[in-house]
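fyi for ur records
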Amino acid sequence: MEYQQLSKDNVAYEWVLKRMNVINTGIVNLERAVLTIQKKINIWLVDDADFKVSDHLGTEAILNYTPRWPLIVHAFSAVFCLGSSALYHLF
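which gave:
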């Protein structure tokens, strides 16, 4: 049996290689997610007759297109949750 002598450089190289593989996997997953989002936005823009197709989405189009009740419900639920938490931690 022969034993391979490991040097610090070899161990550091293997560690860096593993980290680079993790980063590469993350980049590939991010690219897939961006492509999926672009496809869904394109479907949304093509299928919606009321929405104007342009190079950028203006704030007027987004604010007029989105109903307000989900935003209000979300804000009130956040206030309720934080208030309940604060009350619980007082006692």
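The helical segments are 8-47, 59-65, 69-90. thats all i got for now
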